[in-house]
Structure formats: C-alpha cells, structure tokens
Design goal:
CATH class: Mainly Alpha
Number of domains: 1
Strand content: 5-15%
Organism: Imhoffiella purpurea
CATH superfamily: Winged helix-like DNA-binding domain superfamily/Winged helix DNA-binding domain
Keywords: DNA-binding, Transcription, Transcription regulation
Helix content: 55-70%
CATH architecture: Orthogonal Bundle
Strand order of the largest sheet: 1-3-2
Distance between the termini: 40 Å
Protein name: Transcriptional regulator
Number of strands: 3
Pfam family, one: MarR_2
GO molecular function, one term: DNA-binding transcription factor activity
Length: 158
C-alpha cells in the first residue's frame, strides 16, 4: 500500500495549519507580531502573569521553544518577566501595555482568517468541523499523556 498524502489526516491537518499560519502572519505582521508569539499572547490575554511552566503546559510546546519565544517577546517589548513574590525562583510573565493594546486588532485578524477559511461551510458544518478537531486534539493529548506517564508500580530494569 502506498502512502497517499491526500488521504492522510496528519498531512492534511499540517497543510491546513500552515495555510492558516500564512494568512494570519500576513495580517498580524503590520502589528509587529508573528505566528510564533501569537499563541502565547492569546493565553496571556486570557490570564496574565503565568509562569513559563504554565505557558508550556497550556500551549503544549517544548521548553526550549517557549524560552526562545519569550526572549523574542521580551526583546520586542511585549512582555516583562518578574520574580514571583512568593517564590523567588519562579518568574511570572506579564504583558506590557503595548501587548495589551494589540489584543483587539490581533484577535480581529485571527477572526478574519477563520471567517475567510470557513466561508464555504454552513453553520452546522463549521460547528461539526471544530468539534471534530477538538476531539482529535483531545485524543492525541490523552495518548501523549499515557506515553509520558509511567505505569503505576512498574519498576525499571537496569
């Protein structure tokens, strides 16, 4: 059996994500934003003052990627890092006034990309598509969690 990319859910999802990212990048670049920083901004707009670990968990990305993203965001004046008053070992990530001011324009750009991309779908199709994506994401996350969690009571052989 030959692999057919046009029948591969993973390939199609990746291609779709790249197209969404391309269109979003074109719309948010004039705001000084990138698709690399946009997910972190979305999370911080919802809940400012998270730790780097909390951002990693909410965005489901690797620590080095998050560290690089935060460094760029700090350089670009979008965030500031402050020590947690309760635990000096922890830094909290806070949006700057500049980043807060971009929320409306940036989310409007994302909404426009979504509207354009889904314009060919009716309301029910759109809802079904989004629900299916959420179920697939949950399935893949649960599968990853199962792989990452050692079996209870299992001892490793050396």
């Amino acid at each position: 059996m030959t692999f057919n990319k046009d029948e591969s859910a993973g390939y199609l999802a990746n291609h779709l994500a790249r197209l969404f990212a391309r269109d979003l990048q074109a719309r948010i670049k004039p705001l000084g934003l990138s698709t690399g920083t946009f997910p972190a901004l979305l999370v911080l707009w919802e809940n400012d003052g998270l730790t780097q670990r909390e951002l990693i968990e909410r965005l489901d990305i690797e620590q080095p990627t998050m560290a690089n993203t935060l460094t760029r965001m700090e350089r670009d004046g979008l965030i500031r890092r402050c020590k947690d008053p309760a635990d000096g070992r922890v830094q909290r990530i806070w949006l700057t006034d500049e980043a807060r001011a971009l929320e409306g324009l940036a989310t409007a750009a994302a909404e426009a990309v979504n509207a354009d991309a889904l314009a060919g779908l009716g309301d029910e199709e759109r809802a079904a598509f989004q629900a299916t994506m959420r179920r697939i994401i949950a399935t893949l996350q649960a599968s990853a969690d199962d792989r990452d969690t050692p079996a209870r009571g299992r001892t490793e052989s050396l």
